[in-house]
Design a protein that fits this description.
Low-confidence stretches of chain B: none
Oligomer: heterodimer
Number of strands of chain B: 47
Largest sheet of chain B: 19 strands, mixed
Number of helices of chain B: 4
Strand content of chain A: over 45%
Largest sheet of chain A: 7 strands, antiparallel
Helix content of chain B: under 10%
Distance between the termini of chain B: 34 Å
Number of strands of chain A: 9
Mean pLDDT of chain B: 92
Radius of gyration of chain B: 30 Å
């Protein structure tokens, strides 16, 4: 039986969480300078979620529609690694990859679905 | 946390930036009337205290909200304390959980487009059917004669406090609403410099649409800026609005210049400056300072003049020719440095005059900076001038009176202005009631009624002017670098003749100092430091271990997207 932990929510609609889904935080730097000795100096202005490549073995048509319908700024809600529920602004950064279309008992299912997203917000510590 | 500690790190915390503008609109009556308001405390002369935005609001012991912190920062209310910039002010403070009500008026003549209110513990202000949220609001006003009631609602459990209320616009910005803030601080370390104005450009998010009001901010409205980290901020820099502010969408753009832009406003009339050797440096420094202050620059800091020392026997004289303070200041800083006497004016928002030769303030490791490029300027090998008096000259005073204006008829109380092509250090005017002013080549006076018998027995009233000349004698027609002929020719524009002497050395004007300058210049980018100034001296430690003393020519400090960096140009040596 599927639980809430098995879903992510895009623009208010739940879709299956990809099997490999591990959100990571990355530092955001501004005023980056490569110094004369080749090292980097910068101001760390905060952090954001790293861009993610999402991949599903199979998704029903209704969930694929959610991915295809991601235009401009969207919201995505998921459980962060520490278990807290977060809602983030993001944009879809690639076309939705759809390899194979199957119809099983009248239900359309797409296999090998891929899509990349970029998170928009920088968080200040 | 300090700027030095953060700068020592490869990855630094974002710098806190604060800036804003106070654009009071003059000519209008004070727009707020609290006479019928039910306030708890109010300054007797609230029109003055509320309009003085740089007077701080006093922290008074109070049981509103969460009470008063017991850290000594709050004092008991003392009604006898006169509000001032040092004592602070009360402003207007309401009762706890009770709206503060007052009236705002506008007049048909001299109407103002907006008022600004800054306070504390304000939830919202309702005025003329509109609601403005927060403790910093700008309220657009309708022009013409009208009066409306404003209601200030406090945050629950607190009293509404108004500390500033001005006709015009106060806009404060910090990291939360700042898009970018660029401070371009300029010097000119070339062999033929002109004074460079520094400026600031602020781009910030402004939620209110004030497109029609923003351009009404007056020229010269003060813009302030400081940055750093909690507990360690740079000195507040002050600039002045230089072109109309703009708002496009929700982005406001404000551009200002430092006070040194006013150096163009003062025109130095021809003047003789004489000084014995023991006070020559003091006289030159005081003249330098006077040029700057006469132009309307209010100095924030000035070094005490040099001490009197040495022989006072021989007086030396210089003639300052007509030129703007901008030209004279640049000329003194170019040709008036010698030994430890190093008159310098820096502004960049902190106008300051010093005379002691600067020493390195900062250490820069080449390994910590980016894009370091060194360039080589052409050395000056020879200095010439089109001036008939040469590159250098001596000036002497003639002690004989010379009639420079033949007797001419005047009436009593007649204003007379005379201009001459020669230079004079003293004037004697016949039939003079009062002297209005005199320069080295002009005199203005008012005549009195004097009786002169003419040869035919009639009487007329005459005046004439006699003067003692100053004589300019060419000394050197051109100067050759002691290092030989390698380099270019610099043509000097003489705006000063003669030379002042300190001890045995002539120190101003002293064109030969140009030969001592190093030709190595450079530029680099590094993590910005808001304390840097043009003409700051720093030590550059190169990656090969060598060290060079350099002077900052320009610093462009950029705060953008939360990060800070600075682009610096410099010249080796102390210029």
């Amino acid at each position: 039986m599927l639980t809430a932990l098995d879903y992510i929510t895009i623009n208010g609609t739940q879709i299956y969480k990809p099997p490999e889904f591990s959100p990571t935080h990355e530092d955001v730097y501004k005023a980056e300078i490569e110094t004369m000795d080749g090292s980097k100096i910068a101001d760390r202005i905060g952090w954001k979620f790293a861009d993610m490549d999402l991949e599903w073995g199979a998704l029903p048509q209704s969930m694929v529609d959610v991915l295809v319908g991601m235009n401009g700024q969207c919201t995505i809600a998921f459980d962060d690694l520490d278990g807290t529920q977060v809602e983030e602004a993001c944009v879809r950064a690639s076309v939705v990859g759809l390899r194979n279309r199957n119809t099983i008992d009248g239900v359309t299912v797409w296999k090998n679905v891929t899509c990349s997203i970029t998170f928009l917000n920088t968080h200040v510590d | 946390m300090s700027i030095n500690t953060e700068n020592a790190k490869k990855i630094r915390k974002p710098m806190e930036v604060y800036c804003g503008i106070v654009a009071q609109m003059q000519g209008a009556e004070y727009p707020a009337d609290f006479s019928a308001s039910d306030d708890k405390l109010i300054d007797a002369d609230y029109e003055t205290t509320l309009a003085n935005t740089d007077w701080p609001a006093r922290h008074i012991v109070d049981f509103q909200g969460n009470g008063t912190p017991l850290d000594g920062s709050y004092t008991w209310y003392d009604a006898s304390e006169v509000p001032s910039i040092n004592n602070g002010k009360i402003g207007v403070r309401g009762h706890v959980d009770t709206p503060l009500v007052f009236t705002i008026s506008n007049t048909a003549v001299g109407s103002i487009p907006a008022i600004s209110i800054i306070g504390n513990n304000i939830d919202r202000i309702e005025f003329d059917g509109e609601t403005y949220s927060g403790s910093e609001v700008i309220i657009p006003l309708v022009s013409g004669d009208y009066t409306e009631t404003a209601t200030v609602y406090p945050i629950s459990g607190f009293r509404a406090e108004i500390s500033d209320l001005i006709p015009g616009i106060i806009a404060n910005f910090d990291n939360s609403n700042l898009i970018s803030c660029t401070v371009a601080m300029r010097g000119d370390l070339t062999d033929s410099p002109s004074w460079q104005i520094s400026d600031i450009e602020i781009k910030a998010y402004m939620p209110q649409n004030l497109e029609s009001i923003i351009p009404n901010m007056a020229d010269d409205s003060p813009i302030w800026y400081y940055a750093g980290y909690d507990g360690d901020y740079c000195e507040t820099r002050k600039f002045y609005l230089a072109e109309p502010a703009k708002q496009g969408g929700n982005i406001i753009t404000i551009k200002g210049e430092d006070a040194s832009a006013r150096l163009d406003n003062y025109n130095q009339q021809p003047q003789i400056v004489a000084a014995p050797r023991n006070t020559a440096r003091r006289v030159a420094y005081n003249k330098f300072k006077q040029l700057i202050e006469s132009a309307g620059v209010k100095l924030r800091e000035s070094e005490r003049p040099p001490a009197v020392s040495g022989s006072n026997k021989k007086e030396r004289i210089i003639v300052l020719h007509e030129a703007t303070a901008r030209d004279h200041v640049a000329n003194i800083m170019n040709l008036g440095h010698y030994g430890t006497f190093w008159p310098q004016f820096t502004d960049a928002g902190i106008p300051k005059v010093t005379w002691s030769k600067p020493t390195p303030k900062w250490l820069i490791n080449e390994s910590d900076i980016g894009d370091h490029v060194q360039t080589y300027t052409r050395k000056t090998a020879r200095i010439t001038s089109d001036d008939e008096n040469g590159v250098t000259s001596t000036v002497t005073k003639s002690n004989s009176w010379r009639t420079i204006t033949e007797p001419f008829d005047v009436t009593a109380n007649q204003k007379v202005i005379q201009n001459y092509s020669d230079m004079f250090w003293a004037y004697s005017v016949a039939n003079q009631k009062t002297r209005m002013w005199s320069t080295a080549n002009s005199v203005a006076y008012v005549t009195k009624r004097a009786t002169v018998k003419n040869s035919n027995g009639t009487k007329s009233y005459q005046s004439y002017v006699r003067g003692k000349r100053v004589i300019i004698t060419p000394a050197e027609k051109n100067l050759q670098s002691p290092g030989g002929n390698i380099g270019g020719v610099l043509k000097l524009q003489n705006i000063v003749h003669g030379q002042l002497q300190d001890g045995s050395a002539y120190f101003f004007p002293r064109p030969s100092i140009i030969f001592d300058r190093q030709p190595v210049c450079g530029s680099f980018r590094f993590k910005g430091d808001p304390r840097w100034m043009p003409r700051d001296v720093f030590t550059m430690r190169m990656m090969d271990g060598s060290e060079h003393v350099c002077m900052v020519e320009n610093v462009t400090l950029v705060h953008e997207g939360g990060g800070t960096y600075a682009d610096v140009t410099y010249r080796q040596g102390v210029i």
